[in-house]
Amino acid sequence: MGEEEARSWICGDETAKQMLSRVLKDRAFMLLPPLHRVPLRAGNVVEITGASPSAKTQILIQAAISCILPKTWNGIHYGGLGKLVLFLDLDCRFDVLRLSQMLKHRLLQANRLGNGAWWQLEESNVKSCKSAQEKPKTVFDEELYVSCMKRFLYVRCYDSLELLSSLKTLHYRIRQQEACGSQVGVLMIDSIGAFHWTDRLSSSLALETHNRKSLSLTNVVEMIVQELKKLLQVHSLVVLATKATIYEEKYPAIENNRKFSSNDDFPGNAASKAQQPLIREFMPSSWQAFVTHKIIIRKSADHRSLQTGQQNLSAYLLEWLQPQLSSIDRFIVDDSGIVIVS
Q1: β-pair partners for 329
Q2: At what angle do helices 217-234 and 160-179 cross, to 10 degrees?
Q3: pTM
Q4: CA angle 194-197-199, nearest 5°?
Q5: Residue 63: helix, strand or coil by DSSP?
């Protein structure tokens, strides 16, 4: 049977259209700032690390909107991927109203660019309505809005066992969506270390039982990684996962491989670098080996806040650690989403 399958694979023909459809399906794509520096391909796993709060979830929401928006709709260019997003909420703090607000802003912004003559949009139109009676002065395509929201699949998990159960059923859910003509583009996990301390406590409580291996922190993470690998082998996905930071106040002079220092706003400022605490890597080695790209986010030290109109907004810095890039992006989060500032 194996020889017959091998011969059929070798002799199998496909048209040029089928070949291009297969190759272009997994082509690299660029997300909006601040994730625009590195093109991502199916199979990439991006870890976004930062203290709480550091706009990690906002970055996921902005990336999700870029994914669920179509490239074009009724002659208007939206620049999206037109794919599904699977969002696993482990923090249980996701705000769907924030997703809706940012999506509506993107729709209104695209309509302005595509229909400039009639566009009249005030700042209040992209902010949340204070009451049910208040309505935006500019309308957008409700059909497109509903279509985009349907591409956002949300799952909330309260512990690692629920996360494992959800991952095991995702393959079936993805197959259901593909049967309807939809393709999943991004799997988001917010945040991957949410159950670290709970699982660690469970490990200590299981010392006198025979189920120590099944309850160990390392074993749980290994099973999660294995389920994610199975999904990536079958489906063309990019994984975006956020992770909170744990700082160390005391550390040896010689750093080991599980510790890295967060750089200052400007690489040449050695004095400020010395004041930066070390970030301790708490995830097991199985997860670290699984990650292909790493990003660190921290608050801007030279600009604690930016005055924009009547709002006082905090500024953040985003740096690529893997692959290591020389550029560092500074951004703020306003009503419209993430905005890169100079």
Answers
A1: 318
A2: 10
A3: 0.77
A4: 90
A5: helix
What is the per-residue DSSP string for 249-308? S---SS--TTEEEPP-SSTT-HHHHHHSPEEE--S-HHHHHH--EEEEEEE-SS-SEEEE
User: For 92-97, which contacts have Cβ atoms below 8 Å and span 24 or more sequence positions?
Assistant: 92/156, 92/158, 93/57, 94/57, 94/154, 94/156, 94/190, 96/154, 97/128
Give the phi and the psi of residue 71 in degrees, each rounded to 5.
-70, -45
Tell me the chain's radius of gyration from C-alpha atoms.
Answer: 22
Q: How many helices (H) and strands (E) does the chain have?
A: 11, 15
- Per residue in 177-231, pLDDT (tens digit) is 888 888 899 999 998 988 888 887 776 555 555 544 456 778 889 999 999 999 9
Strand partners, 295: 48, 320
Q: Residues near 100 by Cβ (< 8 Å), separated by ≥ 6?
A: 149
With tokens 């005055």, the residue in question is: 307
Terminal alpha carbon distance of the chain: 62
For residues 259 and 279, the answer to whether their CB atoms sit within 8 Å is: yes
User: Which is nearest to 40 in space by CA: 83, 92, 99, 95?
Assistant: 83
